[in-house]
Structures are given as structure tokens and as C-alpha cells.
Design brief:
4 copies of one chain form a homotetramer. The first copy, chain A, is mostly helical. Chain A is built from 10 helices and no strands. At the C-D interface, helix 9 and helix 10 of C face helix 9 and helix 10 of D. Chain C binds a DNA duplex through helix 1, helix 2 and helix 3.
Amino acid sequence: MGKAEENKQHKRNSLLTQSYNLFTTKGISDTSISDIASKAGVAKGTFYFYFKDKQDIINYLIARKSEGLLVKAIDNLKVAVQTNPELPVEEKIIILADSIITDLSKDPKLVKFLNRNLNLGFYVKAYMDESLITTVNVQEEYAKIINSCGDKWRDDKLMLYTIIEFISSTVHSIIVDKLPCDLNEYKPYLFDSIRAIVNVYKI
Amino acid sequence: MGKAEENKQHKRNSLLTQSYNLFTTKGISDTSISDIASKAGVAKGTFYFYFKDKQDIINYLIARKSEGLLVKAIDNLKVAVQTNPELPVEEKIIILADSIITDLSKDPKLVKFLNRNLNLGFYVKAYMDESLITTVNVQEEYAKIINSCGDKWRDDKLMLYTIIEFISSTVHSIIVDKLPCDLNEYKPYLFDSIRAIVNVYKI
Amino acid sequence: MGKAEENKQHKRNSLLTQSYNLFTTKGISDTSISDIASKAGVAKGTFYFYFKDKQDIINYLIARKSEGLLVKAIDNLKVAVQTNPELPVEEKIIILADSIITDLSKDPKLVKFLNRNLNLGFYVKAYMDESLITTVNVQEEYAKIINSCGDKWRDDKLMLYTIIEFISSTVHSIIVDKLPCDLNEYKPYLFDSIRAIVNVYKI
Amino acid sequence: MGKAEENKQHKRNSLLTQSYNLFTTKGISDTSISDIASKAGVAKGTFYFYFKDKQDIINYLIARKSEGLLVKAIDNLKVAVQTNPELPVEEKIIILADSIITDLSKDPKLVKFLNRNLNLGFYVKAYMDESLITTVNVQEEYAKIINSCGDKWRDDKLMLYTIIEFISSTVHSIIVDKLPCDLNEYKPYLFDSIRAIVNVYKI
DNA sequence: AATGAATGAGTATTCATTCAT
DNA sequence: GATGAATGAATACTCATTCAT
């Protein structure tokens, strides 16, 4: 990567970082492109050199942020497996879910920003390649985990979709609106529900 | 209700109906108050006599539409119970869910409009009273159904919350984006998952 | 016309007048809607209440201005006819043409603004009714003049179209660019040409 | 011409060709320098190496296109003269006019692009030399034709100016707006009018 | 209760042009 | 000769909201 290319990456990153800050503090619709550009220290037109429009940068951010959560969850799982190699799949998935939920609960602004769109980071390829340095292929990693045990599945992709949707939607109201109850109160139900869903997909 | 009062209700209804049509065809952000007023045949200023702003009318619409779904589901359940009085709770809930999902699948524009906010129609009281003629108290009815059987629950409200979030989030992507699979393909998994979740909440 | 209606007409007129001044001094594309609104003493949004966009107000102006020329030419002809009632058609048309050309030569900015679009004021009905107070129907008047004599025509409307195009295009370069010669030098040729064209259309 | 020089000419030509395509399909004001550069396969900055700005390239195009029409008309006339050497001037001019009109009627986009500016190709020297390979001096050729006969003229240049303006303005509306009548219907009047104008300039 | 004229802040977006490489 | 990243001024247009009638 030449010096010019480095500089481009740097500006692009600055736009992503600053826009995320503005989106989560002022709100998406109250953040103008002008705001973003000036916070990032570039001219307004420069924004349009790097991103098509506001939705474009939002999509990159969702991808980036949700992939971050998913990658960190995998890392946490790997550690847990080292100390306890014989974990059943359900418990592996619970560990993943717990990692994600814990991170989200620490960052309500992120929850609000993702707005039940966690799945976008998992499924929508379009926004992943360019913005991320990670070489981890998230989908592949999750497939590995699910299929590393002796269990057979009715449809493993559908199970993952279901669980991610389940987590991101139930947790959203609880973290953002603190309704209908506290997260800690909800967690046991949530984890039991996840275990139950996993069992539905087992043959 | 005097003639004047009737006229007011009529205008209010016209605003609600026409705004829903515009929201679902042009999209919410591409629909202006001006559009709504002119379609409803009233002056722009009149809109503000009936509703605070755009979000206000949206909330009334979500309440109206989702309550409609929930009420219809109860009706369908009542019919089913008449022919089969000994239905277990799980199956009652499946009948409710099936009614809601079937209605949603027939009306993708409604799904898009509700945008995973089905719960709003269930929980947010504020927008219910004025806009609806129904005298059915939805929450009460659901409580009755769940507790009409011998089963005891760890937390019946939380169960309902969980199931409604679960349905509205998983079904949203499937109906709107037709991803990751077809609704008919997903239904068996969905119903099995609901049954599993119900069991989680049983003592 | 109520007071409110009068006020509206006044604002509309102010927008037309001020925009014409700006268009002819700064040029059309260098005049912004903002400029027009502020000169007319109204808010930017108010411009859009009266006119669709810049082209809309331009069309009204062209109609207004070119109709003005055509109406004045008729008036001049009427005077000439009073002193000399037996004028042949050719000479009547020359008097009309002379009136138009004389007015144009006194106002090069108008020539530039009309930009060979004199015909628009004659043919395009859409922009005439609202902006003009005149009750003179220009087209009808011209038809009367042409058919007031014993002559028969192959196609009187086509003749008029031809002559107006002829005048507005040849005179444009001469007045705006002062090329290829002076207007006074060109006039005899122009008038002879008009007479010749008139003869072409006589049966 | 060295290889580098050839390459330059090639790029210049590409810019001219591609900009003409864009101007006539998207319209002049909806075509940006960026569009032109990318279609021509060069960088944005390169455009400015070859042309001053948008108007500059437009002028070259008008010159190129209208000179093309005028040159082709001369060729057609030469052929006609071979079979019929005793043609009177009027008819020679009609042959030229017919050639130009026929070409224009086949290419309404060109008519729209030239926008009554046919004369630019005839008179404005500035844009002729560089862009054209033709060694034909159009003005000279036309002078030759007009003076090849026994006739004497009051002012031959003015006649030519008048006729070209006359053709380009009347034909413009007819081809672009299809108003006030069809070209074929108009042609006899047009040709008769041209003959009449020619006679006006004869001594 | 209803109107609709008026507001003017606000925003996205474009684009010609420059200049360091 | 060529590039394309960067600029930032410029502009059209929208729209929620108000308020005198």
C-alpha cells in the first residue's frame, strides 16, 4: 500500500469513525453530511468521493460493528473451548450469545444504532470486504462451530438466522427501552429459549 | 355523537386511511404532511389539529394495524376452540401465531410498515384508545387464553413478549427480503420453535 | 378580487419583475432562486409557491414580453391604418415587423432574453392566461389583419409562423452580436424579404 | 505526425465523439466533464488539457457538425451540376438547402444540439481549424457557387446569412417540436420562400 | 374548526477546477 | 502528458410549522 493509498484509508476511516460518533449521539437523521465531513476534517465533497450517500456509510458501519461483535464472540468461545474441550453445541452457542449480549448491554447506543439489524453484518456480503481488515470469515467460522460436534442438523443456516434474529429483536427493546424487564432478569429465559430453539433444529 | 363530532371523526379517519396508503406506497419519508392533507381532502393546517406530527400519526397507525391483527387472531382461535375445546395451550398459541403470520404474508406492505414493531400494538397503550372502536382489550384476552388451562407459568407476560418479538422479527426478513428462505419452508421450524419457547416458560 | 388575492397578485408580479431584471443583467444561469426571492422581498420558499421552478418563471416572462411586443405592434398598425386606410397587406405586415424590430433594437437585453423564442409568445397558450391582464387575443388580431383584405392565402398561419421565425432569428444575431452587419443596413433587405415571403403565400 | 501526436489526436477525438453522444442523449446541462472524461477513457484532469471548458468543446462540436452538413451539401450540388450544368443559381441554392434539411430531418438530435446555431459553423472561424481535417474552405466554396453565374448581387454574404438563419430557425421548431406542421408539408413553402429571398438579393 | 399563504432553516448533492504526484 | 484525490462554493428544492383570517 503506497503512501497515497494509506492516506485514503485514513480518511475513509476517519469518516466512518466520526459518522458513527455523530449517529449515536445526535441520531442518524439529525446528523448531516456536513456534520460528518467537518468532524472528519474533510470537505463536504470528499464525503461523496468515499461513500455514495448517508445510507451507504450506515450500511458499512452496521457491517463493521456487527461483524466486530460476531468476531469477538468467536474469540471468547475459543478461549472457553480450551479450558473445556467437551462443550456441547448448545453451550457453545450460549457462549456466543452471551458474548454478544454482554457487549450490547454495555453499549446501548450501539444497540440503538444496529436497530435489530444484527443479521446484516452476518449476511450482507456487499459491505464487508472493503471496510474490514479482518481476515476472519465469520460465516465459515460459525459453520465450523456448529458442525464440529457429532450432531446432525435439519438446517444449520436457518438455525443461525433464527437465533440471531431472536437475540437482536428481544434484546433491543430490553436494552433501549428497558422494557418489559431488566436484561439480567431476562437472560435465563433467553438462554433457555436459545437452547430450546437449538434442539428444534437437531435431528 | 353530534353531527359535528361525526364530521371530526370522519376527517380523522380519512387522514389515517390516506396516510397509510401513502406510507405503504411511497414510503414514510417520501410522504409529506402536504401529501397526506391533500389526499385526505383537508387543508395542511387541519392536519395539525388532529395529529401532533408525522410520528404521531404513524404510531396511531401501527397501533391500529397491529391491534387489528391481534384481534383477528383471537377471533380465529375462538372458532377453533369451539370445534376442539381441549386444545393445549401450545396449540392455541400456534393458532394465534398462524393467523398473524398468514395475514402478514398476504400483506407485505403492512409488514414493511410495521417494521418489526408488532409489539407496539400490544404494549403501547397511549395510541390505542382514541383510534379504535374495538372494545376488545387485547392484553386481557391474551392473558385469559394463556391462563385458561391448568398450566402454570414462570412469567406469562415475558413469554408473550418473547413470542411476539420472535415472530415479528423472523417473519420480517422473510416476507420483505424473501431471505433466507421461503415462508412456507420456514413455518415448520417457526412453529416448533414457538412450541419450544412456550415450554421454556412452563413450570 | 379580495384583499388577499390582490396581495398574491402583487407578490407574483414582484417575482416576475425582479427575476426579469436579474435575468437580463446577471444572465439566467447566474441568477439563483435565492437572488430572485430576496430581490422580490419574499422568502425562498415563497418563490416555489408561485412558480414550479426557474424554467416556469422564464416561460411566463417570455410569454409576457413577446406578447407585449406583438400587442404594441398591433396598436401601431391601427394608428397607421387610420391615416392610410387603403394599405395593402404586405405593408401592414411591414408595419407590424417594423414595430417589433424597432422595439427590439432599443432593448438588446430583451432580444438576448427572448433568444429567438418570439414565437413562444405567439403560440404557447399555456403561459398566457394567468400572467397577462391584456384582453387582446393576439392570434385572433393577426388573423383579422391578414384576412381583412381581398387576398386569399395558401396557408395564413404558416405564413405568420415563417415571418415571426424569420424576423426573430435574423435580427437576433444582428442586435446581440452586431453581426454580420448593422440593423439599419439590414432593414431594407429584411423588409424586401418579408414582402417576398408574403407573396409566396398569396394565391 | 509522430506517434505521440497521433495519440493526442486520438484522445481529442474521443473526447469530442463521446461528449457529442452524451450531449445528444442526456442533454448538455446533464452531462458533466466527469461523464465525458470517463466515457472517453481519460482522467478528469486530462479533459482540461484539451479543452478550456464545456462551452469550448460545445463550440468545436457545433463547428464540426455544421461544417459537415455544409460540405456534404456542396458535394451533392457538384453531382447535380454534372448531370445538369445549366442550373440557375436559385435552384443550386435549393439543392444545397434540400441537402441540409434532409440531413437534419434524419437526425433530430443534431437539430436540437445545433439549436438554430447553424450559422456558427459558417461564420465562426475560431473553432474550425483545429478540429477538422477537411481542407475544403466552406465559405469560399459557397462564394464560388453564388458567383459562378451571370447574376449580380446586392450583397451575397448577407443573402447567405439570411438564408442559413431562415432555414435553421424555421426547420428547428418543425423537427424538434413537430410544430406548426409536418416538414414535408412545409418544404414547398420553404423552397418558394428561399427562391423569393434569393430574388430580393439579385440586382 | 378550517384554511392556505408564508416562512426560512435545512440538506443533499453536483461539479468545475486545481495541483501534487 | 496524465492522473485522480480533494476541494468547497453554489444551488435547487422541501417541508414542518405557524397564524391571521
